[in-house]
């Protein structure tokens, strides 16, 4: 009877789990909103919210020339991230592969943007820092979901 009780106790998420899960959901919603902006704003409008005055015009031109396949890669990353966050809130193990898929597609998007398209030339340092933070959050989400699954929090 004691083994059953302790196994069940280990699978209950603590308050920190819920706080992190909500933060990851908010991050995912913010990331998804970026791709919504691609379809409702002009490149000039998008660059006004994303970039400083010094880089706006060049960044708007960069946005206008992003190929459809690259936008699709970003949308897949954002959708998988959002579904992964929902999975965490529902305590489902499928959050893990969704976060992995999201990170793979996000890395592909970063490679296209920074290596193939040279976006760093038209981005401010704070904007680049945001991309680095997104990368670390992607890796953290994988780690956190794997850890939660190993602890029995995700079913």
Q: Output the helix-strand order.
A: HHHHHHH
Helix residue percentage: over 70%
Q: How many domains comprise the coordinates?
A: 1
Calculate the terminal CA-CA distance, rounded to whole Å: 22 Å
Largest sheet: none
* Alpha-beta content class: mainly alpha
Low-pLDDT regions: 1-9
Calculate the mean pLDDT score and round it: 91
Cα shape: elongated
Number of helices: 7
β-strand percent reads: under 5%
What does this structure look like?
The protein has 155 residues and is mainly α. It has one domain. It is built from 7 helices and no strands. Helix 3 packs across helix 4 (56-64). The radius of gyration is 18 Å and the shape is elongated. It starts with a helix and ends in a 5-residue tail after the last helix.
Outline:
By secondary structure, the protein is mostly helical.
What are the SSEs and their pairings?
Layout: H1 2-10, H2 15-40, H3 43-50, H4 56-64, H5 68-89, H6 95-116, H7 125-150
Helix pairs in contact: 2-5, 3-4, 5-6, 6-7
Descriptive key words:
mainly alpha, 7 helices, elongated
